[in-house]
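Dock adenosine-5'-triphosphate; give full complex structure.
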Amino acid sequence: MSLLNVEDLQAGYGKVQVLFNGHIKVEPGELVGIVGPNGAGKSTFLGAIAGAVKASHGTIEFGGESIRSKNPEDIVRLGLALVPEGRAIFTDLTVNENLRLGLTGRREKSGAQKAIEEVIDLFPVLITHRNHQAGLLSGGQQQQLAIARALVSEPKLLMLDEPSLGLSPTVIQDVFGVLNRIQDQGTAIIVVEQRAHLVMSIAARTLVIREGHVRATLLREDAQDEARLAAAYFGTGEDLE
Amino acid sequence: MIQTILDALSYGGLYGLAALGIGLVFGVMRLVNFAHGELIAIGAYLLIVTIDLGLPISISIAVTGTAILALLMEFSVFKRLRLAEPSVLLIASFGVSVFLQRLYEVIFGALPLSGQIAPWMTGVIEFGDTTITRGSLVTIGLALVLLGGMWFFIEKTTLGLQIRAASSDFQTARLLGVRSNRVIGAAFVFSGVLAAAVAFVLVTQRGSVDPLFGVNITILALVGTVIGGLGSLQGAALGGFAVGTTISLLNSFLGNYRIYTYTWLFILVIIVLLVRPGGLISNKAVKERV
Ligand SMILES: Nc1ncnc2c1ncn2[C@@H]1O[C@H](COP(=O)(O)OP(=O)(O)OP(=O)(O)O)[C@@H](O)[C@H]1O
Ligand SMILES: [Mg+2]
């Protein structure tokens, strides 16, 4: 049984439908990428899965349980965490307070402090800033804090929406390196990215979303094939699915 | 002179409590709750109606009753408007406010209901040549205890942390597991408790309560939350304090011209907002990075 199984998902804002056919399967411990142009509906897709955007149609099963009509605060408690686009850390709170908030979504209330210590070991830059206001961190540090904060809830599936946004190449390498380590610990991951090459270097499978439809699935080997990539990304030529 | 300062501080404390009550609810749901005045009014009614049971029991009933009414507002009206625009919420709170004023009129009558709550508070204490009223000391003490207690709750407890997070970004807070209904409910309960404290001080001063009892202080406390910087809890308390002390000081310095107190107050308010449009304590202390 898949950890996450989404089929035929439709979602939007008010009367405006944005997502027409969202589907994805994620196995435990798997890292899946999602790419697509601006406005394709990637963030809407993740938001609908996490319960932050209302889904009007379709199925979302997580751990065999339907979560489509659940609210975000209950979904995170099932072990599905979303790091939203643009980091969304609480800039007025300290780094430590941000991490403590991440504990809210834990299923087990015991071992909370230990969870914070373990997670912060993954992000050494955060240690020295623990009691500083999070808004004073650099962009890369804020992104790491946002990921760390999601991790302290010990999710089975971590969804990241454009974690590389606004970061320098070296910092991106750091962040993606950590994703590999998180996956090694058995956590499944979905990463949304604009840059196909970046996500295909760590994801075994990468979905392409265009205009609200999942149009293609790329495998790691496809990264070498520029023509195939461009076709999938921009929708020139046949859909690959 | 000492009495002037104490009066200013006690007024400041009183308005600070009122503004914090409004600021708490605004923080978590971007609702400017005009019906906060009717929470203050019900607190005063309950005090006067139950004072024969003795002050401690009367206060307990007033605090509990006010908190319950605050929760009732949330469950019966605001909870159903979670996805509504702030303007819709604002109008709804106007509606609740007017509805409750009429309801009080029906239940308690349109005329002021008087009663003696803690008459000892109007007494004076003499220190040699200077006399000071007990009321101002009690008010200052009450404000210190409640503001201190609220500070501890907001800054040091997990629920307080969740309220701060929800105040700055509710959507993200929910994604982390913060239960919206719990946080909003808590904000309403505490705003009710603070309203009851304000009711206690006001009703001992005035000796009576009428359906519009809480309207004035609510509007002025609202001005305080705006001056302090909407969205910041310290800002709300501080802004309320500033408005209260200013009113009190203007009253003493203007003497016979005190009818101009509010004229001067609002001139000062406009100047403050021109200089600092975001309020004294701007919510975004740190600029967000790209
Ligand atoms: N909160 C919202 N209210 C209304 N429309 C929205 C909202 N968020 C997104 N949209 C619209 O939905 C469409 C898809 O947006 P979405 O953010 O899902 O795209 P995306 O693939 O994540 O784009 P990007 O790469 O720029 O992040 C866009 O046309 C956008 O204008
Ligand atoms: Mg997006």
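Observed: Residues A 42-43, 85, 161-162 surround magnesium ion (ligand 2) (CB under 6 Å).
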